[in-house]
């Protein structure tokens, strides 16, 4: 079971330089996650326990997973990822057991960063807690909270959770000592978009006419993941055209194409 749902990555390759437009978020993640991992004695000396967990919240594709991976990389910690949806099971006790396994694996791989994506899957406000499926999900969450509360270690295991649906979360997980550091990870503004364009084109053969400032202005509302997709698609246009240089027109065409795909998707789901 472990192997199926838990990914242990001993050296995630994301660095802080790969993340654009999230300077404040990065500082806060470093303070809460990196410091306890690197200097647990600082907390001992002062006599406080570092916050166990950090919750990242914001729209999809904005860099939440990247932030968690980068901090694990920077501190030479293992990165252990699990999606909240994978903790939701039919059988009684299975979710809780997975949570125990998760923390056990983390302790075996210290220092470690546990990343729980889609935490809302097990930590949503319940509208009707009488159904048995809900009770099982509730038990899984209780197990997670008790693992976090019972943390006697000095900081060698840090927990980062992420959600796109902050408004849905049960307040129990936001109590002091749990995920009491909340970090909003929004979509980038124009300056952020420009930086992210530059990051994702670092290895691309970009023509002189490409104006990232202009792209960042016109391609509003894009997430980091959208920008990455536009860069790849722009490269595809160049390849189809048998060129090695990617031009401004390629980026514009890529943007247009991806916007149409998005609209088609929205149309489908209605
Ligand atoms: P989700 O909520 O859907 O899991 P997420 O916020 O965890 O999304 P990531 O998985 O971190 O998003 O981002 C997906 C990809 O988009 C990254 O691998 C990266 O290529 C790109 N990306 C997203 N945000 C940024 C950013 N701020 N800077 C650079 N690249 C980014």
TrEMBL record:
Primary location recorded for the protein, binned into one broad class: cytoplasm
Residues engaged in binding ATP: 61-66, 200
A GO molecular-function descriptor: ATP hydrolysis activity
Subcellular location: Cytoplasm
Gene Ontology CC: one annotated term: cytoplasm
Keyword RNA-binding part of the UniProt annotation: no
Keyword entries, A-Z: ATP-binding, Chaperone, Coiled coil, Cytoplasm, Nucleotide-binding, Proteasome
GO aspect biological process, one term: proteasomal protein catabolic process
Location of the AAA+ ATPase domain: 50-189
Family: Belongs to the AAA ATPase family.
Functional note: ATPase which is responsible for recognizing, binding, unfolding and translocation of substrate proteins into the archaeal 20S proteasome core particle. Is essential for opening the gate of the 20S proteasome via an interaction with its C-terminus, thereby allowing substrate entry and access to the site of proteolysis. Thus, the C-termini of the proteasomal ATPase function like a 'key in a lock' to induce gate opening and therefore regulate proteolysis.
Subunit structure: Homohexamer. The hexameric complex has a two-ring architecture resembling a top hat that caps the 20S proteasome core at one or both ends. Upon ATP-binding, the C-terminus of PAN interacts with the alpha-rings of the proteasome core by binding to the intersubunit pockets.
Domain commentary: Consists of three main regions, an N-terminal coiled-coil domain that may assist in substrate recognition, an interdomain involved in PAN hexamerization, and a C-terminal ATPase domain of the AAA type.
Protein name: Proteasome-activating nucleotidase
């Amino acid at each position: 079971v472990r192997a199926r749902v838990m990914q242990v990555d001993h050296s995630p390759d994301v660095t802080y330089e790969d993340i654009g437009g999230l300077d404040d978020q990065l500082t806060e993640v470093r303070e809460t996650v990196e410091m306890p991992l690197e200097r647990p004695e600082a907390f001992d000396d002062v006599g406080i326990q570092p916050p166990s967990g950090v919750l990242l919240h914001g729209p999809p594709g904005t860099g939440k997973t990247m932030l968690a991976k980068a901090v694990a990389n920077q501190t030479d910690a293992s990165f252990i990822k699990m999606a909240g949806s994978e903790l939701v099971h039919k059988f009684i006790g299975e979710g809780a057991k997975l949570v125990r396994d998760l923390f056990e694996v983390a302790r075996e791989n210290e220092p470690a960063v546990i990343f729980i994506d889609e935490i809302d899957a097990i930590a949503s406000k319940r509208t009707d807690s009488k159904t048995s499926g809900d009770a099982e999900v509730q038990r899984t969450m209780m197990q997670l909270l008790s693992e976090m509360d019972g943390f006697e270690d000095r900081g060698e295991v840090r927990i980062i959770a992420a959600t796109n649906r902050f408004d849905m979360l049960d307040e129990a997980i936001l109590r002091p000592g749990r995920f009491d550091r909340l970090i909003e990870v929004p979509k980038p503004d124009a300056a952020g978009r420009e930086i992210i364009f530059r990051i994702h084109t670092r290895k691309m053969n970009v023509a002189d006419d490409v104006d990232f400032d202009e792209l960042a202005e016109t391609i509003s509302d894009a997430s980091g993941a959208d920008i990455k997709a536009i860069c790849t698609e722009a490269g595809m246009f160049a390849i189809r055209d048998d060129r090695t240089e990617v031009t401004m027109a390629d980026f514009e065409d890529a943007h247009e194409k991806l916007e149409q795909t998005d609209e088609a998707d929205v149309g489908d789901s209605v």
